[in-house]
Structure formats: C-alpha cells, structure tokens
Amino acid sequence: MERIYASCDAKTWEGELPPPREVILENVADADGLLSLLTDKIDAEVMDKAPRLKVISNCAVGFDNIDIAAATKRGIVVGNTPGVLTETTADFAFALLMASARRIVEGDKLVRAGEWKTWGPMILLGQDVHAATLGIIGLGRIGAAVARRAKGFGMKTRYFDVNRNLQAEQELGVEFTDLDRVLSESDFLTIHTNLTPETHHLIGAEQFEKMKRNCILVNTSRGPIVDNMALYEALRDGKIAYAALDVTDPEPIPKGHPLLTLQNVIIVPHIASASVATRTKMGLMAADNLIAGLKGEMPPNAVNPEALKMPH
Ligand code: DGY
C-alpha cells in the first residue's frame, strides 16, 4: 500500500469482508486503476461504470473473478501474480495430501477431545504416500511443483492437461494420460487447473464413479471445479476415501453444509498461498502491476497484454 500511496491518490476499502457490489460500482466511477482481490467480481457492469479505467490488478494468480474479454475489449489491461506463489501453494497441496493420508486432523481432534486411551494397533489407520500413484489435473507451474515433491516421496505420477508439459514429463518422469485414466488409477488426485467454463464441475458424480475407492482428492485451485454435492455423496457413500479442500463452492462454505458433517474431509479457508513471504511478494507484484498500468505501461505480469493495443 505504501508503494501505491506514493504513486497515486488511492481510496481503499478497509472492511474485513469484501466491499459490497454497490460500493465497487460507485467508487470506480472516477478510478484510473483498480486493485482487486479474488473475492471481488469485476465484470462488464463494473467496467462500464468506470470510463477512465486503464488497469485492473488482481492480487492473485487466478483471475476467474474478472471478465478478461470485457476488459480487453475496453482496452483495460489486467495484471495477476504468477510465479511467486507456486512453491508455497505446492507445499500446501502436499501438506493437505499428507494430512489426509495420515489422518492428522482427526488425530489432533481425538487427542484434544480426551479420547486417546492407549496405543492401539488399529487406531487411525491411514494410507501410505510413498509408492502410491498421484494423479495431477493441470500440470502448469503449481502442478509441476507438486509433481517434484511427489517424486521425492517415491510416488508414481501421471497427469491430464489440455496442454502437454514435455519439460516436466522429462524432468520429473510424470506421465501424460487422459482424464479417465488419471481418475481410475490414482490413489491421490490433486487439482491445479484454472476455473473456466470448461473446468466448471470437471469433477462430478460421473468422475467419482471412475475413481478408486481409496482415492484422496486434494483441491487447492478453485472450488467450482468440483461439484461439492457430488463430492459429499461420494465421500458419504465410500466412492472415494477422503478429500482435502482449500477451496469450496461457495466460499466461505456455509455452516451446516453437508460436507462439514463428514469426518473424511479436511476443509481450510483458502490459505494455500498464505505464507508471510509469499503474500508479501504477491502484494508487491500487484502494486507494481497497478502502477505500471496507471502510467499506461505494460504491467510486469499482464494477463491480456493485447488490451494495450485497443483504443481506450
Ligand atoms: C490465487 O492467487 O489465485 C490463490 O487462490 C490465492 O493466492
């Protein structure tokens, strides 16, 4: 924020919860730039209320909250924060994988509830991570960073993506295959794809039918990629063993949601990139994208660089 305040006049929303829609609509009227969070829906209506808007800087790598086509059409460049959160997010995906495989959250709850009576040969038996098969949906930066961790753990890895990542295939020994095979052969399945109309509910009832009954699903990407009600039924009916979710649909997941009644699910509040160092880097990157866009320059990380060629 200091970097931004030093380069322009900025109004900030100080509330803990995202600004209500009407506050966004009202305040963009005279804005040249907008710094948004992934909780802010920035669509054509917002852009139409902002005739001066030149840049939208999203403080996230994901940008499904922004209508990119609408921005490009209006000559508004959009920035995001790729790269700096890759390793931190991969660490967290692996932490969720390990925590669910070895039932760490359940163990902690049992101890705190005073239910640890003795060592027992059958208490909280989990699944081995080493030598298991990890399926990765989306082998971009974060997916590849997870594959690297899996290699260190002696896992077999395969992936599905609309684009092949030959470098990661060679360097990490991760095998490219179709979605059905990833679903049917994986002991662990981790999602690292963007949310788009094509990936919305990519994992639903039909996909759970194809998965191994011991499969553990990890999602650190976007909640709507998984059909949450189908996931609930799959976990309840033993079609898969466990899920570990950093993201849900909606967010926050409402109190009383059926998923929260299950023991075989871990849900945390969208914190995969939440290390001090990484959030600092994301903030600085978002500030730099904003400041460049305000000057009419190309932001260091632009999602739609072609927007600068459009009449504004
Ligand atoms: C992102 O950047 O898209 C994450 O979801 C939050 O860090």
Explained architecture:
There is one protein chain. The chain is α/β, with parallel strands linked by helices and 312 residues long. Helix content is 34%, strand content 12%. The protein has helices at residues 2-5, 21-27, 44-48, 68-73, 86-101, 104-112, 141-152, 166-172, 179-185, 205-210, 228-236, 276-294; strands at 33-36, 55-58, 77-79, 133-137, 156-160, 175-176, 188-191, 216-219, 242-245, 265-267. Helix 5 (86-101) crosses helix 7 (141-152). 41% of the residues are buried. Residues 38, 60-62, 85, 273 line the site of (2R)-2,3-dihydroxypropanoic acid.
Please provide a brief summary of the model.
With 312 residues, the chain is α/β, with parallel strands linked by helices. It has helices at residues 2-5, 21-27, 44-48, 68-73, 86-101, 104-112, 141-152, 166-172, 179-185, 205-210, 228-236, 276-294; strands spanning 33-36, 55-58, 77-79, 133-137, 156-160, 175-176, 188-191, 216-219, 242-245, 265-267.
Q: How much of the residues is beta strand, in percent?
A: 5-15%
- Please tell me the overall pLDDT: 97
Shape: globular
Physical arrangement of strands within the biggest beta sheet: 6-5-4-7-8-9-10
Furnish the topology, listing elements before pairings.
Elements: H1 2-5, H2 21-27, E1 33-36, H3 44-48, E2 55-58, H4 68-73, E3 77-79, H5 86-101, H6 104-112, E4 133-137, H7 141-152, E5 156-160, H8 166-172, E6 175-176, H9 179-185, E7 188-191, H10 205-210, E8 216-219, H11 228-236, E9 242-245, E10 265-267, H12 276-294
Helix pairs in contact: 5-7
Bound molecules: (2R)-2,3-dihydroxypropanoic acid (DGY).
